[in-house]
Design goal:
Shape: rod-shaped
Order of helices and strands: HHH
Structural class: mainly alpha
Largest sheet: none
Amino acid sequence: MIAPRVEQLEKDLRRAAACRQYKEVARLATEIGEVARGHALDARKGDARAAESARKMYDLLSWALVMMQAARSACVAELRLVTTATRYARPSGATGRTAAVSLDA
């Protein structure tokens, strides 16, 4: 049986990852790791529930990592798009001007 605290941490982590709240994900991942460590210390050697719990925690943290990597990649792509688009954009009402350099200084 999964403790209600662990379930809540999992929900919070998934929400934070989906909302791209990087610091919150890091904080929750640390807290989940501490909870998992406590469960591991309390478990008996060879306990199948402990192994299952560890697999679930590993899957959850692996999922969060992939979500963060995907979110950061999406941010990079958006920034590249904005950078490229603004390179060719002119303020409204601006006429095409050419820069002039005077060499007679």
